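Structure representation.

___
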Amino acid sequence: MPTAIAVTSADMALPAQDERTVPAVVLRDLDRQPLEESLAALQALTDQHGYVVVVCSRAAAPGVEQRLRTVRSLLESDRIALFHPDLPPLGIAVLARQLRQLASCDLSPGVLASAGRLLTHYVHAGAVLNSVTRLDHVPVGLRAHAKSWVPGSQFGVIAHPEPQLVRIGPEATLKGPEFGTWMLVATAQLAADWVTGTLAPAWNVLGLREAALPAESAQWWGTGKLVEFCTYLPDLSVLYQLVTSVRQGVCHWCGIDVIGDRCVFCSATPPVPDHPAPPG
């Protein structure tokens, strides 16, 4: 069985991108169900799949991540990876789907779990907001705060990879990806005209799709009136090539293959050499 890719709410499980995309495992109501149910669910997943990667938004209820860490500790398992990148909820959902695509390939569990960090660099995530007064994840100047009080004002915001904020107008622009991507758009009480009619053509996106807005988006962006968007690489062959082209290593603690300097499963980092190499 392929490594299980789990999400913490049903709206984070996007429809499959292709016929090879494995289904997402939805861990519902982790912060409300009895601890015994959470333990049983994660134990069953690890027994069936061997390894589990849980992709979780930082906008999830505080009890969700706490429950995940408690369960992982009680199971004393290094086969459960908790991955919560600093992305808005729609970007998290896209990243989880990319991992579901890669789960169908011949990647080891450690490399698959590590791939999430790599693929995060290729995601551009932002939103159109009617107000930035409660926006905490992107720096907001006093002038933008003042303009939030002007009726009809809207703002284009990029949260990742580099924070950007502009007041939407005839000359408004946002820096986008310098490679071919698709765009996913989710709306709530605002029209998506600027995103689909202005931003997408300016970014030369190769295709555009719509999705339901994740429930956690309003909290993350600080307003319930928004259009959230995210650009991403949709093709499995491109994702696979990106992951397999990166040098792999072996975790010195648990022995699995990894990408990068930290094991996603046991959190171990490479040991510091006893005798550092001399300068030069």
User: Anything to note?
Assistant: The mean pLDDT is 88. The helical segments are 35-49, 62-75, 89-102, 109-120, 142-147, 193-202, 217-221, 236-244. Residues 2 and 103 are 6 Å apart (CA to CA).
